[in-house]
Write a structure and sequence with these properties.
Blueprint: E1 3-8, E2 11-17, E3 27-31, H1 41-50, H2 52-61, E4 69-73, E5 81-85, H3 97-114, E6 119-122, H4 134-151, E7 157-162, H5 165-178
Parallel strand pairs: 2-7, 3-5, 3-6, 6-7
Antiparallel strand pairs: 1-2, 4-5
Helix pairs in contact: 3-4, 4-5
This protein binds ligand AR6.
Ligand AR6 binds near residues 31, 32, 42, 123 and 129.
Length: about 180
């Protein structure tokens, strides 16, 4: 399996191809929607693999705004927690799209850190049903995570779990450009 691993201060940032529901990190991130009631893509896969407990907790929480993040248990998943975030629906890359996508990553990291989470796996938020071009989204995602890890040392591992070789290649290319 192709992958890329770099160190940022004491933390590890890694890129792999795979299925987010199979990750053994303390937390995995769900690319949810504002209603938190489940959906397709990663959201559907996480709820299917994690079982009904996750949805019950989501219903209690109620809602999540674009760029925000909330947390539930991991249900039947290996991961103890699921951090649910809502990426922006891509319009044109202008307006608030980049800012809201960056907020989604940053708020997941802040929330994870406040819960003592040491390792977290992200999917490529907004690049499926929400239509964000992968290359642009990768740059925002990686920049936001790198900036966070430069300033905070509590999260030891951030793993991007990309769906398919093509997405992994894009993330690898963008990361090489950024470091
Ligand atoms: N593991 C890792 N990545 C995956 C997996 C998986 N199991 N399944 C899909 N991907 P999307 P969005 C990739 O559509 O664009 C839902 O219906 C996929 O290839 O899941 O943020 C929600 O309820 C893509 O690159 O999320 C919302 O309504 C990336 O994950 C809406 O979709 C994100 O695709 C959110 O759309």
């Amino acid at each position: 399996m192709a992958s890329m691993v770099i160190k940022i201060n004491k933390s590890t940032l890694s890129l792999i191809e795979g299925d987010i529901t199979k990750q053994d990190t303390d937390a995995i991130v769900n690319a949810a929607n504002k209603t938190l009631r489940g959906g397709g893509g990663v959201d559907g896969a996480i709820h299917r693999a994690g079982g009904p407990k996750i949805l019950e907790e989501c219903i209690k929480i109620g809602r999540c705004e674009t760029g925000g993040a909330v947390i539930t248990s991991g249900g039947n998943l290996k991961a103890k927690f699921v951090v649910h975030t809502v990426g922006p629906v891509y319009r044109d890359g202008l307006h608030r799209d980049p800012e809201l996508l960056s907020n989604a990553y940053a708020n997941c990291l802040k929330l994870a850190s406040s819960k003592g989470i040491k390792s977290i796996a992200f999917p490529s938020i907004s690049t499926g049903a929400y239509g964000y071009p992968v290359e642009d989204a990768a740059e925002i995602a990686l920049k936001t995570v790198i900036d966070y890890l430069k300033e905070h040392s509590d999260i030891e591992l951030v793993r991007f779990v990309l769906f398919g070789q093509k997405a992994l290649e894009v993330y690898e290319r963008v990361l090489k450009r950024l470091i």
